[in-house]
Write a structure and sequence with these properties.
Elements: H1 2-9, H2 13-21, H3 25-32, H4 38-50, E1 54-59, H5 67-87, E2 93-97, H6 109-126, E3 131-133, H7 141-152, E4 159-163, H8 169-176, E5 182-186, H9 201-217, E6 221-225, H10 229-241, E7 250-254, H11 259-267, E8 272-278, H12 283-292, H13 294-307
Parallel strand pairs: 1-2, 1-8, 2-3, 3-4, 4-5, 5-6, 6-7, 7-8
Amino acid sequence: MLGPVILAASRSDRMRRLISAAPVTKQVVDRFIPGETVSDIVPIIKDLTGKGLQLTMDVVGEDITTPAQAEGARDAYLALIDHLKELELGEKVEMSVKLSMFGQALEGGHELALANVRPVVEAAAAIGTTVTLDAEDHTTLDSMFAIHEELRKDHPGTGCVIQAYLFRTEADAKRLAEAGSRVRLVKGAYKEPAEVAYQQKHEIDKAYVRILKTLMDGEGYPMIGSHDPRLISIAQELAHKAGRKLDEYEFQMLYGIRGDEHLRLAAEGHRMRVYTAYGTDWYGYFMRRLAEKPANLRFFLRSMVSKG
């Protein structure tokens, strides 16, 4: 399977230099990351919301090695919130954050990440929107869930992400499927060992459906993070069986992937939120998009051959 190879490349400085230097790379990256600055991204926000879509914004960047860089990540999100305030879009545009950006892996990282992310959550609430904590590799999850629980004390709309390929996630879903919770379910995009995660696609898909049923039958707000047509159809069936109205769950997909499906779901009355990333430190995010879906890798390789 190519996924683990690509994920390994995402941590290679040599591969970063080679791919970043390729003339075609920026053109292909733009498919998934449509801007480097807030100013770049504002027209995208206006265009997508004008089409009836909602967004979750991600300022890309995970290689944080100093507390000053973590504070810079915090400030980047606060600057984004200032722009969103001017747009007056409320809950149509929320934010997704990776706690690694806020210093989680540094010395004293749990407390540092909480201290840095808290003002972002507070500022988001002040303009009528929310923040979702992205899941990263399995070693970070206990810290992420603890920070999530702490933030929800004052801001109960703070969301979190769970990953279907991890063995622990079925138990996490049962705990999180409570009134007021917001939970995004994804398959998972990190290289995880067989001791903690399913390795085969069919096993991951089955786990995804089991976990999604738990969320749909619960009292929280499920967010279905998938581009898989079969899983999207199953999600609609589970929502119907659970008696959920169209505003009691939502679909989420990545910017640049299956754009026609985004519009189709929105036209049918579903809440459809587009995960939209921007920023200059795009490499890790981009490589995981390639690892997640073979079609993304084929698209990149065709571009390299035809344009390189």
